[in-house]
Amino acid sequence: SQTIHQWPATLVQPVGSPLSLECTVEGTSNPNLYWYRQAAGRGLQLLFYSVGIGQISSEVPQNLSASRPQDRQFILSSKKLLLSDSGFYLCAWRGRGGMNTEAFFGQGTRLTVV
Amino acid sequence: GENVEQHPSTLSVQEGDSAVIKCTYSDSASNYFPWYKQELGKRPQLIIDIRSNVGEKKDQRIAVTLNKTAKHFSLHITETQPEDSAVYFCAASIGSGNQFYFGTGTSLTVIP
Predict the structure, then answer these.
(1) % chain B with pLDDT above 90
(2) Second label for A1, Cα 20 to 30 Å away, from A13, A23, A63, A109?
(3) pLDDT one-digit tens code per residue, A62-93
(4) Among the listed residues B110, B75, B47, the one whose alpha carbon sits nearest the alpha carbon of residue A103
(5) Do B99 and A49 touch (CB under 8 A)?
(6) CB neighbours of residue B12 within 10 Å
(7) CB contact under 8 A, B89 and A44
(8) Confidence band, pLDDT 50/70/90 cuts, at residue B94
């Protein structure tokens, strides 16, 4: 069966520090991968999605970047965090093949920038 | 990209009553419409979905309806229970595409 791992679960970082959140998927190959951010009491904002190794599409201009160094690994990064980067970050994967399939989410990372 | 709007943002109902959450989308090419439930501090999980070749789908106490002409779809929860209290998200996706857009969420509270 497929599983998705996301870590860390919580993170407190000072303003100006770097960020690296990692997400890995097991039990499937060539998935679509997504990073979402959920601000407190808000909806799920699509940040990045990837259809393959090294292929990243950005949805909104921001202080963050994403990379996909391996088929089932998706990394969210920042060189210098801002206070506004605080939120709940969720990684997700979907199957491929032209089918309408659900997205499966990781457990999320609660990031607090202080 | 796709723009998904969701209403209401908060909803309180008495236990046993019905709850209805509505979403609209902008891209007529969207053809997959899932609904997710997110309990406090947890990951969103799929509760029901509908594809554009179907107008209605039901699973026990929950149902989803889709009006492709009007580009809106709705979640219906009947005989609500306290454990239905959560944030619900609608989403829209184009089957051959890769983006997956969510609405802004509805916080549902079922009052015992």
Answers:
(1) 77
(2) A109
(3) 789 999 999 999 999 999 999 999 999 999 99
(4) B47
(5) yes
(6) 13
(7) yes
(8) confident
